[in-house]
Every structure is written in structure tokens, then in C-alpha cells.
Amino acid sequence: MTLTHPERSTTASAPTTTDGPGTERLTTLGAQLRTALDGDFAEDRARMRATFPAEDLLRDPELDVEASREWTLNRLLSLNGQGFGSAGVPTTANAGSDPRGAVLTFEMLSHGDLSVTIKSGVQFGLFGGAVTNLGTEWHHETFLPDITSMKLLGGFAMTELGHGSDVASLETTITYLPDSEEFEVHSPTPGATKAYIGNAAKDGTMAAVFGQLVVGGRSHGVHVVLVPLRDDDGNDLPGINTGDHGHKGGLLGVDNGTIRFDHVRVPRRMLLNRYGGVDESGTYVSPIDNQNRRFFTMLGTLVRGRVCVGGGGGIAARRGLSIATRHALRRRQFPAAGRPDGVLLLDYLVHQKRLLPRIARSYALGFAQNLLIEALVHVQGGDESTEEDQRSLETHAAGLKAVQTWFANESIQEAREACGGAGYMSENQLVEMRRDVDIFATFEGDNTVLMQLVTKSLLTDYRKEWGELDRTGVVQATARVAGESVLEATSAGIMLGRLADAVRRRPEETTLVDRRWHALMFEQRTRHSLESLAMRMRAAAKSKGDEFESFNALGDHVQFVARAYMEEWILSAFVDALETVEPGESRDVLERVCSLYALQSIHDTRAWFMEHNRISSGRSKAIGAQINELCRELRPHALPLVEGMGIPEGWLGAALLDD
Amino acid sequence: MTLTHPERSTTASAPTTTDGPGTERLTTLGAQLRTALDGDFAEDRARMRATFPAEDLLRDPELDVEASREWTLNRLLSLNGQGFGSAGVPTTANAGSDPRGAVLTFEMLSHGDLSVTIKSGVQFGLFGGAVTNLGTEWHHETFLPDITSMKLLGGFAMTELGHGSDVASLETTITYLPDSEEFEVHSPTPGATKAYIGNAAKDGTMAAVFGQLVVGGRSHGVHVVLVPLRDDDGNDLPGINTGDHGHKGGLLGVDNGTIRFDHVRVPRRMLLNRYGGVDESGTYVSPIDNQNRRFFTMLGTLVRGRVCVGGGGGIAARRGLSIATRHALRRRQFPAAGRPDGVLLLDYLVHQKRLLPRIARSYALGFAQNLLIEALVHVQGGDESTEEDQRSLETHAAGLKAVQTWFANESIQEAREACGGAGYMSENQLVEMRRDVDIFATFEGDNTVLMQLVTKSLLTDYRKEWGELDRTGVVQATARVAGESVLEATSAGIMLGRLADAVRRRPEETTLVDRRWHALMFEQRTRHSLESLAMRMRAAAKSKGDEFESFNALGDHVQFVARAYMEEWILSAFVDALETVEPGESRDVLERVCSLYALQSIHDTRAWFMEHNRISSGRSKAIGAQINELCRELRPHALPLVEGMGIPEGWLGAALLDD
């Protein structure tokens, strides 16, 4: 399936009521909103929806661990056979990489059972990705055909029991033995045990193992080597000791396990040596001299996984919100004046506020995810790209993964509660989805740590430009320029900056739904919090006390800056996307959705705006009322808004939506 | 087991390092904090900890639905045989009710598998409670012995598919048939099907069924009748049609199901007729003339369930926070200056802020729960009590149930994330606990609806006093008095009011840890939001538009008032409890814990305080820094604080705490 070359356009973009996949019928507005939200990928996504094998989409929640694993493996084998698995991973060394196909496929898989999605991510994204991105021609020719056909299932053995987020401190050793031209892979301590590794407990017969490469007694930092795990009967090979994590909070279909290595030997060529290896003479060679830079280059190839997981989280949130909103459009409770049969749940303001601002946020995140996929395609798709592009991609992938997966957790939970007792029944899917998505906040990088990466990256930009100025100089200079320097990484920021400029002098003379004012508030939240953090960092560096404690005290400020920046980037993406939508009803609705997203984001941190004299207390009070008003205005469009989120009703699989 | 007459004191209150249950060893401070938090129930709770059968405490998460149900039933049978089941339910008509024992037992059961806890709640609290509180002597004599011995298992069939929170609109009919002196129980529509009923899918052979009582063609509102469900072989009796909800988000050990009635007849005496029934002549008789009042009186007897569920949620939160905090005191990650082996997780400020403010809130909720139990004992324990006492109890039980169960959900989730990937493994208990506690936010009253009840009750007080004054009069009068009228329901409010008075004139001249300032802020948050809501309500009532929409627009204001009031009541409870703690280290630590609770609560709504000119923007900024400082100060006491929460380490059952 060639995703980048659509064979035919689909009906989803038609301006009239249409049939989507199967018997899906959409309102005209719903179809338009869907096309807008799908953005540049609208045709691909519509075609994938039309061809995705939707029977057997969801796993029976009563299956136990063993049966879940079997079902998941079989489902993925079937999907892979139909083009929805290895898409994006080259089958041979000569085929190009297709990051666009990889992400869109992952997102499409996220419309169904998430164990299948994550198992595909382990096999194709992580294991296949390591071989593709860190290996060289021999690895590609030898392993990629079997990886993409799923003859060879493998794990991605990075995390160790003792070392989760701190990859640089991994203890596993990969020691070169010159006499036999082999590597010896070893777990020197219990803490070095590889942990939580997908495909390790049962299905995997090989793993891409991260460890400290030691050549001639000298350590060259973290590298990756392919290590066979099991024989054809599924028994651990000599020196391999796998364990099974058994039952988990969710994702029961993924066989996460542990691996310990006891002096396991593999041939020299099993090292994935694109960025560093040992030549025939037994000498360490690498195209990257600086060990630190090499480390981050190798980790940087993992960025696709974060784009995928964030996107998958976003889709899961849409599924949850779709179920709860469709339910709230059917369910009545408590009679009221003029409503003897009871009030529709979605007519209660309190209920609207549980769902509509989250739908607005789903749209905003969707536009940002589109932008991120484009950035990924630019960097990994064969275009010319700069190191700056790569770093910008990594920053936004980290931030958007954290923001989307946190959002998935809290919005599916809200959807569950909004469906009351029915929401708790597994047949209505919300609890299963919530369980599966829980760990999205941790894997592919703990969200809190990822947000630190975002801020670190912003500070690097900042220091580069202003590191030499004194404190007063910094304040003056940054007031003029630093905001732009932060935003320049994305073209989206230009539009936002222009909007902000237009109202900079008299911000409170605008209405609360004036996009220029939103732009200014989002920009100021990022800029001021970043500047003050930089100053506090500088002071901390100069202080004589415990250095760790000095920086430690800034921990929540670091988190705030990352959130502020990501919110601004998301708004940028939304504003840019709006420009591409033709004037008319769908544009009008999307403008309101954008305002609801922006105002809710400002509202959530309105205390900060007041504390920094960016918003008066009177204006702050008015924001809540304006959010209520937007909910009222969007309430009649609730069904089209749900349709626009792109999850076909028949795929939701929630019993409470059956008639 | 007689809980109200402790047989011996325990070692938990001793001022030196002590042995708790089994081999538990506590720090001196931990033991003191535990005694303080256990409050007036310290001896009972210590004895229960020492005697609670702690082997087989937690269910194997791999058990399927059927095996989970079997395990749960057997465990509850075993616990009941050892005095930890029906405690608090009288075994005969003559034995007194023991609400204190009922709640303390429920809380103790919450230290283990929550399916067992909830099954006990269904059997003893709801089914047994309905028979006890709504039935009369014949019901007590006939059924209580078998209910308390678990020979007769029963359901509490209130909720219907079409009617969750709206009990008054239940459709099931209970029609009197004078010829045969029977009642005919019937489900006239699919929406009338009883749903989510514990013990209905499998174990229950009887149910207490809520329905509209019809006598001589006239409806007398909701009443409750006992209806046999199954024969000795477990088959549905004629006219009964039970269904099974199967797999749920959690609580797999509880057999929730549906029940439909097809013209089922039961003898006249099966109606629980304490508040209304049919006499031998076929005439409806009730000690309460007003139908509405009768309805609320009958529902009022359910208050104990809310006290239990809130308390159980509070205990679950403590278990989750105990696991995550103990883990953070062992786990190191990322080396730093002066910390070559890595930094202890709990030394990171960001990590402290995930856990310590929640521990502080756990303490605050614990003191409030103690107060609530006392109020329950006062009303249901045989003392003289007024209708005012009953209403105050209902209000606080509703609010504290909502606040504690929401807190349980979010704090166990935070604990899960704070343990990273390990937190997701079922063997570490957090995900199982999180799944089980999810529905606590919905059953025994949807939390959002419960919070509406709190505000409604406050407005009733308010209207009673000031309903006749004009708008200006109201403002003036309430400025002087209304706050007190709201608070007078609890003696705790008096202390808080005095503290607030002392700084009313110059609130910002206090420090941020000055209890008087906390008291003033909490009081003003409640008082002002309540007053402005009352004014908006009055305006809504006078407006000519759609009456529903006028009130609907106030939905989030209603929620805010309830939260503000509950926070104030919780602070009152904490402040009162502090008075009873001897000066010394534990008192000092608890004062800081109280400040951390209070400041975090103010911080969470600091936008409101600024919007209403109660806190300046400068002072608001300082609150965040003060919270950080309190975390630093409490960090060295993290272990004693965890011990104080009262969950013996050996009971946590988390593999990641094994050495």
C-alpha cells in the first residue's frame, strides 16, 4: 500500500451527505470538518478508512493474558497481510523509508484494539526501526524481509530495571572479543535486566539490545546489537534468561517481558553499526567523533515512535469523546420545565463542559499532529534537512507525545464518568481503552521527562543567542527578539506573531474571541516564562550552594515553560490550518472550536496571566462566561463535530450506542 | 467484635518505635502521626489492624470474571466468619445498629481487594441496610440473621437502565392486589430494567426492589419491596429475568447484573413498610404525610453507604500514595552533582510535588472522614438527633464521598505514573486498585450530582434566613451573618471563624503559613461564591426566558460552591484535630501538613481569589514558592508520613517494594 501516492480520491471530501466506510453516513458539515481535520492527509486517511479491515476490530475483554496475546498476534498477522502493519518500514535495503505511511498506519491501527497497535509499534517501529535506522546494508538485506513479513519477531531491549529514562546509564555491556571476532553481551547486575520489553516474554526470537560498547577495554557509550533470544521451539537460547511480566494494567495482548544476558556471544556483524562499530582489524570506527553527539544521534532515530504514540493517543481520545458525546445526544435524565421526558445530557451546561472543550482540544491536537507528521516526513523522508530541522522535530515530537497522551488519559476518563455506570461496563469500550492508553504516558519517554526535553531545547536556542549578555541586556534583547527565535523553528509561528503584533499595544480592547488576542496571550505565556526561567537558571549556576538543589528548585517552572510552548505551537498549527479552510459553515464552526481551545487553555492558566499582569481580574472572570457561551454555540453542531473527528460510528463498538 | 467498646489499648500510640500488625515496625514519629490521624478511632483501628486476616489480602489479577467472583465470595465468607463483614448490621431486631462498626469495618476491608469491600457493601450495607432501615420487625426477625450470616445474599435494586441519578422517575411498579393481598412487581419498559445491581448476576437469591407503589390505582411514590430472585439451583424464578453485565472496568469479583420483572407477585408483608405500606384492609398508611418528604426520608437512610464509599476511596488513595512514596524513597535515577549513584526520586522537587501535597490532602480527608463518622454515629447510633443533624450529615456525606472518590482516582493514577513502567505491572497493585476505584466516582451517587446536593442544601439554609430581604438587604445581611449560618452545622466551623476574624482587617499582613489567613480565605471562597450564586439564582427565577436554561447556565457555579464549601469543612476538621495533638514533633509536622493542604487548595483556585480581589497577584505568586518550601521541609519526614497513613507496609503487596 503506497500511502504517498493516492490512487483515487474519496467521497469524504464531498460537500454533501456522504457514505463513508461501510454504511457510514455523515452530515454535510461533519464530512467537511473531517476533511479539514485530516488536512493534507485527507485523501490517504479517507482511503485507509474505506479499506481498513474493520471486522474483528476490538478484542473481547474477557480473554485472559494468554488468549489476548494469541488474538493480538493473529490480528496483527492478518492486518499486516492486508497492508496495515509494516507500512512505512522498507522491505529491503533499496526500498525507501516511508515515515508518512508508518505514522498514518499506526494512527489507523489505533482505531481498533490498542494491543495490536502497540505490538505493531514494537515489531515494525522499534525493532524494525532500529534495524532500518541504526543498521547497515547487511542488516537490511538479512533481516528486513523477515521483519516486515513477521517471520522474525523481535524486541527493542533498551529499558533496564534500574534505568528507565536514563538511557546513558544503561549497565548492559557489549564487549568486543578480538580473538573470535564476536561481541559478548552481558547483564552484570540485577538492575541491568532488560525490563518491560514487548515481544520478550513469548513471541520474540531476537532483540535489538542497547548496551555499553567496550572495545579493547575502552567504553564507547551506548550501542545496539542484535541478539537471538529463542530457538524454534520457543526455548531461551544458552545464556539468555527471559521473564514474563504477566498481567498488566492494560495492553494484555502485548507480551512484555524481561531479558538477562549471561555472557552471550554474537558475531561481530550483529552490531547495528551505522553510527559506530568495530572493523575487521578490531578497531572502533564511527562517522561521529563526539560520543555525546553520537548517543543523541542514535536516540534521535527513535523520534518516529514518539510521533506515532502521540498520534495514537490522540485517536484514542477521539474514540472516547465520540462514544460519550453520541451517548449524551441520546440519553435523557431528570425532567425539567418544558422537557417532561427528561433533559438530554448534552443540554446540561455542566455536561457540555465535560465534552465540548475536549473535542475542541482534540481538533487542535489533530492539526498539530498533522504538522508534526510533515516535519517527520521532511527529516526522514529523503528531503534535504538540517540538524536544526532534526532538533526541532525531536522537540515537538517529545512535547506533542506528552501532551496528547496525557490528554488521552484524562479525556477517556472524563468520557467514562460522563457515561455513568454504563461507562464502566467493558462492552462500552471506554474502560478498556482507558486501561490500554494509561501507559502511553510512560513508554517512548516518560511524559515529565519529555517535557523537560522541550524546555531544554528552548533554553539551548535561548543560550545560543543571548548567553553572553548581562542580565539587563538579556531582558531588553529578549523582549524584542527571543520570542521569535523560539518560534522561528516553525513557519506556523510567523502567522501567530503577526496576529499578536496587531493587538500588542492595547490587548484588552479586543473581544475574548479575537484570535489576535489569543495569539498575544499564548506568545507572552511562553516568552515570559522562558525568559524568567533563563534568568533563574543563570542565578542557579552562579549560586554557591548544592548545584543539584539549585536547579531542582526550578523543576515546576521547567514543566510550565514546556506546556506554555507546546500550547502555543498547537495554536499555531490550528491557526495555519484555518487559513486553508474555505469560508462557510465549517470554517465558522472551526473558528469557534479554535476559540474554545484557546480560551480553555488561557483559562486553565489564567492565574499565571493575572500574576504577571497580562490579564486583568475582570477580564479573567469574563473568560469563563465566554467559554460557556461557546459551548452553547457549538452544542447544535455536536454531532458533526464528532463525525469530523473521523471515527466511523460503527467502529466505536460501544453497546450503549446500539439501538 | 464490639468496636465501640475497645477491650485493650494497642502499641500504635506508644511514643517509641513499635511493632504494628505482624512484623510491622514504625518510626516513633510515624506511630504518633498514625495515632493522630486515626483520631477518636485510634484504638479501634489499631486493634482492627492487629487482628485483620491479612493473608490472602489481594486477588490474583489474572483470575477471570468467574474465578474472581468465586474468590471474592469465599474471601468475604471467610472474613465475615472472622468478624470483618456484617459488623454494624444487627443480627436481630433487638440488637442495636452499630454505624461506627459498619464504617470502620468497611474502611478496614478497603485495605485489601476492593471487590471484597464492595461485595460486603452490597450485602450488608445496601441490602442489609435496606432491610434494617426501611423494614419493620417481621423483616428484621425473618431476614437479618440470614443476611448477616450470608446464608441469604441479596441485591439492592434501585438503579434502572433509563434512570441513574433520577431515582424519583423510576418506572418499576409495585402494585397492590387487594384480592390476593399481594404486590405485583413489574418492569413496564426496557428502560425500567434494573441495572448494575451487585449480587444480581449470580449470587443473589433476593433483591430489595425500588419502584412506584400503586394502591387502588393511586401512586404513592417510590417504595421498596423484597423480591425472591432465584431458586436453590440458581435458576431465575418465574417472572424474573436476570442478566449479567460480565466484564467491567474493575471490581471483577462483584457480580453486577440486570433484573426485569414480568408481573411478579410477592406477599403483602414483603414490602419494607417502615415509612409507608398497606394495611390489612388494603389501605395505604405512612407515618409521613408528605410524599416528597417520605421519599427523601427513605433515601436518607442510605447515607451510611456514602460515608463508607468515601472512606474506602480515602483508604485506597493512601495505599496508592504509600506504594509510590516508598518506591520513591528507594529508586534512584540520573546521576547529579554530589550524587554519583543517581538522585533518589523523592529528592526531585517535581516528584515531591506529585506525592507530598497529595499525602497532605490524604491527612486532611482523613480528619474530615473522622468527623463524618462521628456525625453518622450521632444520627444513626441511638442518640437524640434532630432533622437538622440528619440533613447536615447527608450534605457532608454526599460532598465528602465525591471529594474522596475523585481524589482516589487522581491520586492513584498519579502514583501509577510516578512509578513509571513498574507502576503499570499488575504485581505492583496500582493499576488494579485504580481500575476498582474508578466507579467509586459514580456509584452511591454520581459525584457531580452529589456536589449539586451539597450546594442545594447550602442554598436551602441561605433561603431560609434571607429569602424575604431585597437584594441590597441580602448583601448587607449576608456579609455579617450568612457565612456563619452555613458553618454552624458543624462545631468545627466555630474555630475556623475565630481564626478568620483575627486577620479579617489586614489579611495580607500575615505569612502564607498563618492558619488564620487560611481560615479567612477558605471562608471567603465559600461565602462569596454562595452569595453570588444565590443572587444569580434569584435573577434566574425572575427571568422570563426558558426556566431550565436560566438555571442551567449556573451549573459550574453550583459545582464551585460545593467544592469551596467542602474544602472549608475539611480544613475545619483538620484544624480541630490539630488542637488535640500534644505539642512536639508530630504536632509540628502536622501543622506543616495542614499548611500544605490549605495552600494547595488555595493555589488550585488562586485565579478565583485574584478575580475577586481576595489575593493580590504578588501574593498569589508567592504561594507556589511556599508550597515548594513546605515540600522541602516535609521531605525528610516522608517515611513517617506514609506510616502515619496507616497502611502496614506488608499489606501493600507491591512487588517493587520487595528487596
UniProtKB/TrEMBL annotation, chains A, B:
Superkingdom of the source species: Bacteria
Coiled coil: none
Compositionally biased tracts (Polar residues): 9-25
Protein name: Acyl-CoA dehydrogenase
Cofactor(s) needed: FAD
Boundaries of every Acyl-CoA oxidase C-terminal domain copy: 521-656
Domain Acyl-CoA oxidase C-alpha1, residue spans: 300-459
InterPro entries: ACOX_C_alpha1, Acyl-CoA_Oxase/DH_mid-dom, Acyl-CoA_Oxase/DH_mid-dom_sf, Acyl-CoA_oxidase, Acyl-CoA_oxidase_C, AcylCo_DH-like_C, AcylCoA_DH/oxidase_NM_dom_sf
Keyword Ribosomal protein: no
Keywords: FAD, Flavoprotein, Oxidoreductase
Region (Disordered): 1-25
Domain (Acyl-CoA oxidase/dehydrogenase middle): residue spans on this chain: 155-264
Family classification: Belongs to the acyl-CoA oxidase family.
